[in-house]
Amino acid sequence: MAVYKLFPTQDTTIYCSSPLENTGLDAILEVSNKIGASGTPEVARYLIQFDQEEILDIYSNKIGSSSFDVYLKNSIAEAQGISQNTLLEILPVAQSWNNGTGYRLNNPISTNGASWAYSSYSGSNQWLTTSSYSGSSGTYQITSSYSNICGGIGGGNWFYDPNGGFYVIAGYVFPGYIASFHPSSSVNLSYYPRAIKDIEANVNSIVDGWIGEAIPNYGFIIKLSGSFEFNPNPGVQPVFKYYSVDTNTIYPPTLEFRWRDYETVLTGSATGSIVTTSNIKMSLAENPGVFFPESVNRFQINVSPLYPTRTFQTSSIYTNLNYLPTSSYYAIKDLATNEYVINFDDNYTQISSDSNGNYFDVYMSGLEPERYYKILIKTIINGSTIIFDDSYYFKVING
After folding, report:
1. Sign, Cα dihedral of 79, 85, 86, 91
2. Least confident segment among 188-192, 279-283, 346-350
3. SS (H, E, C) the chain
4. What is the pTM of this model?
C-alpha cells in the first residue's frame, strides 16, 4: 500500500482569552477569532506533533527511492461564523512544548502544559517572540504574532524564511535531503462558507525540513491568517473546531504519507492475459479477515472472464492466469460509517501485478483498531469504469 498514516503524539489548543490554561486532553482542537463580552477579540490556535522517529522510519524503510507527498488531515467537528473566504495557516513550531492534562474550561484551570503564554507548565519557558536556530543548512529565524489583548506575549512561534517569506524547504535528492529556503508563503488553506472544512493540506515543505534536519520537529501550529486574527469586527468571527487525538470518535488527526509503489509485469513479460470484457468474476485472496495494527498484508486479486472465449487447449480454461487492466485501483471504507479511509487515487492506490496476478499491500497501523473495513476495486475496461463492492471485509484488532 502506498498510503501510511501516523497519529499524533500530542496536541493542544492555546487560548488568548485564558493565557495560562492548558487543554492537552480536550477532545477538540480550535482555531478561532471570537468577540468576547468586553468587545475584544479572543483568538485560539492549536499545536499538533507527530513522532520524529516514526517519520524517519517511514522515509528510510518504507518509501525508499520513491517520490512522496505528505498530508496533514484533520476532520471538522463544528464550524461557525464563516461568512467570507477565510484562510488558515500551517507553520512549523519553533520551540518544544508539553501536551499537559487539561480540559477546556476546567475549574480551576489546568496549567501543567502548553498554553498561550508558556510552552511548558505555567511559569516555565515563555514562548520566544524572536530568535534564531542553526540547522543543517544554515541559521533560520523564529517569529511569532501576538496582541496586547493577551498580555503582549505568547501564542506559540514558528520558523520563517528571513529572505522575505515563511519557512519553506525545497530540494530532494535520494538517498539524502538537500534542505534550502526560498521565499514563499506558509501552507495556506482557504475556506468559503459552503466549503467542506476538513483539513487535508500538503505539508511536504515542512516535513522535508524535519527529515533533512534543517529544523527540529516540534510539530505544526495552525492559526488564522493575517487580518482574520485579533479582528474586532463583529462580522469576522470564524470558528473552526477539529477532532483531537483524544476524541472518542473515529476521526483523530493524521499525518498521511503517500507514495507510488506500483509495479507491473504487464509490459511484455507477463504469461497471463488482461481481461477485455466487463463481464468478469473476481475474488480476493490472502485475506484472513483479522489483522493486528503491526500487520502488513498483501491482498491478491483473482480475476477471470465470466464467459470465457471458447478455445481448443489441453488444460482447463479456468486455470489460465488473468490480470486486470493497468488502470485498476483499490479503496478502503469504514464499514460502519461507509466513509472512505483510503480513497481511489490514480497515483497512490494503483493495483500492481506480478507472476501470480494482481495485488496491493496495506499497512494496518494506519487504520483505527477494533473496526471493520471494506475493500473496493475499481477498473477501467473498454472505456467503462467498473467498481466491485463484493463484501471484501476485514477487521483490525488490538494486540
Report:
1. positive
2. 188-192
3. CCEEEECCCEEEEEECCCCCCCCCCCCEEEEEEEECCCCCEEEEEEEEECCHHHHHHHHHHHHCCCCEEEEEEECEEEEECCCCCEEEEEEEECCCCCCCCCCCCCCCCCCCCCCCCECCCCCCCECCCCEEEEECCEEEEEECCCCHHHCCCCCCCEEECCCCCECCEEEEECCEEEEEECCCCCEEEEECCCCCCCEEEECHHHHHHHHCCCCCCCCEEEEECHHHCCCCCCCCCCEEEEECCCCCCCCCCEEEEEECCCCCCCCCCCCCEECCCCCEEEEEECCCCEECCCCEEEEEEEEEECCCCCCCCCCCHHHCCEECCCCEEEEEEECCCCCEEECCCCCCCECEEECCEEEEEEEHHHCCCCEEEEEEEEEEECCEEEEEEEEEEEEECCC
4. 0.86
Cell of 28: 477538540
Query: pLDDT-derived band of residue 227, with 50, 70 and 90 as boundaries?
Result: confident
